[in-house]
Here is the input.
Amino acid sequence: TAFNAVISAYNAPLVMYYVYLLYSEKDKHLYIGSTPDLRKRILKHKTGRVRSTKNRRPLNLIYYEADILRLDALRREKYLKSGGGRKELAKQLDSYFVKIEYEFSR
Here is the structure.
């Protein structure tokens, strides 16, 4: 029945796509990326296996969000890298940025 099909789809393993924000303690800058496996990707960053961040360690994961569709995560990553997205992050993470004395270039 249609009901059983919906229930089966609901119980199927769900893959999430993550957009994440890293803070480099070394250069005091942010890194924004996306991945379907957040734990694995963060481990790669922290162990120097990502070219764009290997010389910027230590890195701290300071924010992430999840999307069901890969395309949505990629769009969100692109937006967060834009001026409007950076302003949104500045507002959303204001208390954290004050704590670490991070100056957003506005």
Summary: Helices lie at 2-11, 38-46, 70-80, 83-92, 94-99. The mean pLDDT is 91.
